[in-house]
């Protein structure tokens, strides 16, 4: 297995990569996130590519055999794409939309090693129990929503509002590790 660089500041992504027994270095880029598509799957592929490319560009010649991993997660509810909330009022609006409904979580991943590059995405469906306004504010005051796409974390307090998921759990937390491992093997 080649050396790995995780181009992400997300603690969840580090935990998931460590969970499957991989060793890696973390380099966080300040990539400009350029979006040209409106399909959530294409959006997360593009954004993951921006993050991985920004780090790949900083590597020296000796590091050309390293695989750089970039990733991005969004929530899609009907025709809307939700990233991280701007403030608590935005978080309230997002959770208000998600409660009592089913939405999709898309995570895109890009792997870059020298000239070789691959991007893919995974999608999971998440159904949320109805929540009262009081419950939504109580959840926002846990501080959990602000750094998360769709303003919730399935791995935290929000778990008690999850009715059903279809698809891979790690896609929702931010890194679909089964698919990632499958793709990494192709890099040798
Ligand atoms: C839906 C959901 C998202 N999230 C997180 C995963 C991502 O960290 C975050 C979405 O933001 P991203 O912009 O994908 O990632 P990030 O800014 O946290 O990290 P980086 O760009 O450096 O890789 O939301 C959860 O932790 N749990 C969830 O249930």
Automatic annotation (TrEMBL):
The coenzyme or cofactor needed here is:
a divalent metal cation
Q: Which segment of the chain is annotated as a signal peptide?
A: none
Q: Where is the active site?
A: 72
Q: Which UniProt keywords apply?
A: Cytoplasm, Hydrolase, Nucleotide metabolism
Name the residues annotated as site: Important for substrate specificity: 12, 73, 155
Q: What is its main location?
A: cytoplasm
Source species, domain of life = Bacteria
Q: Which reaction does it catalyse?
A: UTP + H2O = UMP + diphosphate + H(+); dTTP + H2O = dTMP + diphosphate + H(+)
Q: Might you give the EC number(s) for this enzyme?
A: 3.6.1.9
Enzymatic class: hydrolase
Q: Where in the cell is it found?
A: Cytoplasm
Give the matching NCBIfam families: maf
What job does this protein perform? Nucleoside triphosphate pyrophosphatase that hydrolyzes dTTP and UTP. May have a dual role in cell division arrest and in preventing the incorporation of modified nucleotides into cellular nucleic acids.
Which HAMAP family does the protein's record reference?
A: Maf
Q: Which family does it belong to?
A: Belongs to the Maf family. YhdE subfamily.
The protein's name in its UniProt record: dTTP/UTP pyrophosphatase
Please tell me the species this chain comes from.
Muricoprocola aceti
């Amino acid at each position: 297995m080649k050396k790995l660089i995780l181009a992400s500041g997300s603690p969840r992504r580090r935990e998931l990569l460590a969970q499957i027994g991989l060793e890696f270095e973390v380099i966080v880029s300040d990539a400009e996130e350029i979006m040209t598509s409106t399909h959530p799957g294409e959006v997360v592929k593009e954004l993951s590519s921006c993050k991985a490319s920004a780090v790949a560009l900083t590597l020296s010649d000796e590091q050309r055999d390293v695989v750089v991993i970039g990733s991005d997660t969004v929530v899609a509810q009907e025709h809307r794409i939700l990233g991280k909330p701007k403030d608590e009022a935005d978080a309230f609006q997002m959770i208000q939309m998600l409660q009592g409904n089913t939405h999709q979580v898309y995570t895109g991943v890009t792997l870059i090693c020298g000239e070789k590059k691959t991007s893919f995405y995974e999608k999971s469906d998440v159904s949320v129990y109805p929540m009262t306004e009081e419950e939504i504010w109580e959840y926002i005051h846990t501080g959990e929503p602000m750094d998360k796409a769709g303003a919730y974390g399935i791995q935290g307090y929000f778990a008690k509002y999850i009715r059903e998921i279809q698809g891979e759990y790690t896609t929702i937390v931010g890194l679909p590790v089964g698919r990632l491992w499958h793709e990494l093997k192709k890099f040798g």
